[in-house]
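User: Can you predict the 3D structure of rRNA adenine N(6)-methyltransferase? Sequence below.
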Amino acid sequence: MDATENVQDSIDKTPLRSLKDTSKIEIMPLKQVTKEKTLKKKWKKQVEQEESDVPRLPAGEFRPKQSLGQNFISDVNIMKRLCNVFDEEEGGHGDGRQVIEVGAGIGSLTHILFKKYPKMSAIEIDARAISQLSRNIPHLDVIHDDVLQVDYEAVSKAKDTKLWIIGNLPFYITSQILFCLVDYKNFIDTAVVTAQWEVAQRIVAQPEEYEYSILSVVLQLYARPKLLFKIPNYAFYPVPKVDSGVIRLDFKNKPNPPCAPLVLKRILRDSFNQRRKMFKTSLRNCLDQLEIARLPPELEDARPQQLTPQGFVALAQWIQKHGNFKANRASYGLHDNKRMSSPLGPEALEPSPKRVWRQEKHGEY
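Assistant: Sure. Here are the predicted structure tokens for rRNA adenine N(6)-methyltransferase:
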């Protein structure tokens, strides 16, 4: 036998090998594969069944309006977590007549709330959304109105209870809705709302922090704000560019600041509009108007970021006491039939109880 035959014989006796190593591949019987596919189908069907109860945007029928700031929460777990805040913080008692959802949209959040609180009400301005609400939740009490124009005092009295407010707020009017709730704080127990993450941080910001603002001062004076959790932007549809946060505002047993609201409002706006400047500069127009020569020495060189909410109240009280309001009655809500004396200044500083902090129309924000 020559060398060529020896090589050929060696090749013939060598077992064939696959180009790929199949030693780790598990070959399952056909029955087992079929069983696993069935389980996956059942799991998928269960998930779809759980989410099918939540109203979705009707294809080709409802396109979110950018002009109304419509970004709907699309994550069911986040909706449930938001609705559960009332259970955790308020005990979740009653039939829900005290629950008011602001900006219900097509009712994704409303559907979950309504199961817990069948006597709740929802406020919505978009007629297309109201059509969806009446179709999906026919027994829901819907108030067709602008959330900034609703008389929450009248709603509270009609329901014979203080209100629990909940809502996914439009970004572009978030601050004004919050100021509106402050105007009606005597008729609201609590509010649980979403806000742009930056706004949520401003609400709970402390002096000396970058986010400290008018919103920080006002909401910390009139309520007890608490930042609960963050919502990623992909949990909304359409997907916004920023994340959101859930804020709880506790208005219960929170007394109003012992100063005239319109004086406080003027001080806050003048100072935070020029937040880098000292009070002696930013409040100059206000002080000249009220014939006040100068501020107390400890405040003249201070800036708004340095003053606590209670510090702003003390400043408002000082201005009330030393200012000449006789020539500025209209600007500060003065009434001729009131005397101009009190330990805090003019006792006639009584603004309209329903409109202090919010503006008149969306276009003014």
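Strands lie at 72-73, 99-102, 121-124, 141-144, 163-168, 188-196, 224-231, 236-237, 244-250. DSSP finds 15 helices and nine strands in the chain.
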